[in-house]
Amino acid sequence: MEVKILSEKFDIENAHLLEVAKKHGAYSTLDKLFAMEPAAVTEEVKKSGLRGRGGAGFPAGVKWGFLPKDTGKPTYLAVNSDESEPATFKDRYILVRDPHMLLEGIIICCWAIGCNDVYIYIRGEYTTQVKVLQQAIDEAYAAGYLGDKVAGQDFRVDVTVHRGAGAYVCGEETALLESIEGKKGQPRSKPPFPAVEGLYSSPTIINNVQTIASLPFILTNGHEAYTAYGTEKSPGTHLFGISGHVEKPGMYELPLGLPLMEVIDKVAGGVWKGRKLKGVIPGGSSTPVLTVEEAKTVTLDYESMAAHKTMFGSGGIVVLDETVDCVKLVENLINFYHHESCGQCTPCREGLGWMKKITKKLLAGQGTLADVDLLRELCDNIEMKTVCVLSAACTMPVRSYLDKFRHEFEAYAIDNVSADAKLQGN
Amino acid sequence: MSDRSELIITGKPFAFDAERDAEFERLVKRYPIRESMILPALWLTQEQEGWISAEAMAYIADRIGTYASKVYEAATFYTMFNLEPKGQYHICVCRTLSCWLREKQEIVDYLAKEIGIRPGEISEDGRFSLEEVECLGHCGTAPVVQLNGEFHEEMDVDKMKALLATLK
Ligand SMILES: Cc1cc2nc3c(=O)[nH]c(=O)nc-3n(C[C@H](O)[C@H](O)[C@H](O)COP(=O)(O)O)c2cc1C
Ligand code: SF4
Ligand code: FES
């Protein structure tokens, strides 16, 4: 089932070095690129159907089309390498194993949108990754692929790495821009959208690492080669991360549209330790959980996920076995999102804190059925009433556990048995 | 959000060393406004000293030509900036979803027993500090530990024991 489009060079030794990458085709698309009109490049990307791989799945070419013309201001590109959504671990493979694919993609995007200044925003924890990426950038400058004259053309591209410092919210596109501007990572109200008024109040495109890294393949081989993979509405391939209770967790490149259960069983080795499946989180911790029944019918594409009332998200699949306590899992999720709230909206800052307290109370064996209802009600009252969707990234999954595994929450409330006592078999 | 409002005043002046100074000057040309140097300058400081003092923040503000409050705002918001010295060996254990499912708690409990510190604490001799952190982007090789910034994947108690044994 696995394919090698983006991951073609991942297993080649030292493919992060320019010399090796070039031997395997890196930067070979630039001649073709500079012979094309920028608008034609955007058109090709539109036809490829490439959708943003950061989580929201917005068509890349369409987003580029939102840039206003002749504003007299520079256009910026911010590459989102924050990769902080729990269960998401794909972009770092690109950074470490094939950074030149990302840089070539950046050049392609810059040409299409008329941009000269690029910032790669990388999460602070990626210490080894930032070193490899910076080395690749230095090599690309020395070889003339970056700088004043890209590949000898009268076209400048400067790439600067900007390190975050431990804030998940900076993956949100406007918080990311604030962070580059030197401020704390608090998302901005939209509109204006970044394409119109983004970094330094100028038109800005923000794209995920994997989105940008998909461009060299599309341009080299044409959009038909890309749409040959995946489904009609979800074309192409994706770097899926499979974690949790499977025998072979890891990152796998697959075409979109495969049945989820087949991927879990055949690619990831099935549920570990011969245990039974309890549920699957399909696209990062913020996506609603699927029951076993739902997991059997869903396929790995945007449309099927939506039909199952969940989301494709970032392609981070988490497998849950029969031993998982959904109340404890929800506590782990709420702790994360509450900790990462930037604090500017009351429903998010206080509401997630409130949800945390209720869950703790349930787990201590001190909750009531009214608390379970209150938790559910809070989900509805917090969502969509905040500046960004971080709060919804918490309430959407929590609501799904409450609706699909309600009896587990009720059991804590009715029996008033604490998690500790449960562990000791009382 | 967590409370990170306390700054430590050392009573000693701070300045970049020659290497950091050069890096600062290289980077400042990359941004159209000088305030964009706040995060990079905080990183340079932390690389040099291991943590960031009140004096260092004042120095950065001065160097950039901005208000000290802006530097303070960023330094206290971003949790990776250390506002106090950490242990010689700073251990971060991921506590989020996938690592939690793959039993990260066993590692935290082992470290608490072996070194005698809980998450958030520094050992009395200053050798170790322990922190539980959020998802480190290595969920496919959970549970994950970072030791002084270096990743250690697919950890368990035995591997943690072996890793500690390599430390002097
Ligand atoms: C709280 C929050 C965190 C996010 N984290 C990331 C991230 O780590 N990486 C990423 O690419 N997108 C992240 N996103 C999505 C970005 O806001 C944005 O949609 C994306 O970078 C756009 O790129 P794309 O169109 O190529 O996907 C996050 C969004 C939110 C609301
Ligand atoms: S929803 Fe939460 S994270 Fe997003 S802007 Fe509001 S307080 Fe900040
Ligand atoms: S959950 Fe621990 S690295 Fe992602």
From TrEMBL, chain A:
Recorded catalytic activity of this chain's protein: a quinone + NADH + 5 H(+)(in) = a quinol + NAD(+) + 4 H(+)(out)
Highest taxon listed in the record's lineage: Bacteria
The entry's keywords: 4Fe-4S, Flavoprotein, FMN, Iron, Iron-sulfur, Metal-binding, NAD, Quinone, Translocase
Iron-sulfur listed as a keyword: yes
Residues in NADH-ubiquinone oxidoreductase 51kDa subunit iron-sulphur binding domain copies: 327-372
Pfam families: Complex1_51K, NADH_4Fe-4S, SLBB_2
Coiled-coil stretches: none
Single GO molecular function: NADH dehydrogenase activity
Broad EC category: translocase
Names of required cofactors: [4Fe-4S] cluster; FMN
GO BP annotations, alphabetical order: cellular respiration
PROSITE patterns noted in UniProt: COMPLEX1_51K_1, COMPLEX1_51K_2
Gene3D superfamilies the record matches: 3.10.20.600, 6.10.250.1450, NADH-ubiquinone oxidoreductase 51kDa subunit, NADH-ubiquinone oxidoreductase 51kDa subunit, iron-sulphur binding domain
Keyword Iron included in the entry's annotation: yes
EC code: 7.1.1.-
Biological role: NDH-1 shuttles electrons from NADH, via FMN and iron-sulfur (Fe-S) centers, to quinones in the respiratory chain.
Family classification: Belongs to the complex I 51 kDa subunit family.
PANTHER family: NADH DEHYDROGENASE [UBIQUINONE] FLAVOPROTEIN 1, MITOCHONDRIAL (PTHR11780:SF10), NADH-UBIQUINONE OXIDOREDUCTASE FLAVOPROTEIN 1 NDUFV1 (PTHR11780)
Protein name according to UniProt: NADH-quinone oxidoreductase subunit F
Species name: Desulfopila aestuarii DSM 18488
Lineage, top ranks: Bacteria, Pseudomonadati, Thermodesulfobacteriota, Desulfobulbia, Desulfobulbales
UniProtKB/TrEMBL annotation, chain B:
Binding site for [2Fe-2S] cluster: 94, 99, 135, 139
A UniProt-annotated Pfam family: 2Fe-2S_thioredx
Cofactor: [2Fe-2S] cluster
Regions crossing the membrane: none
Cofactor-binding details, from the entry: Binds 1 [2Fe-2S] cluster.
One Gene Ontology molecular-function label: NADH dehydrogenase activity
Family: Belongs to the complex I 24 kDa subunit family.
PANTHER family, per the entry: NADH DEHYDROGENASE [UBIQUINONE] FLAVOPROTEIN 2, MITOCHONDRIAL, NADH DEHYDROGENASE UBIQUINONE FLAVOPROTEIN 2, MITOCHONDRIAL
Name this polypeptide is given: NADH dehydrogenase subunit E
Source organism of this protein record: Desulfopila aestuarii DSM 18488
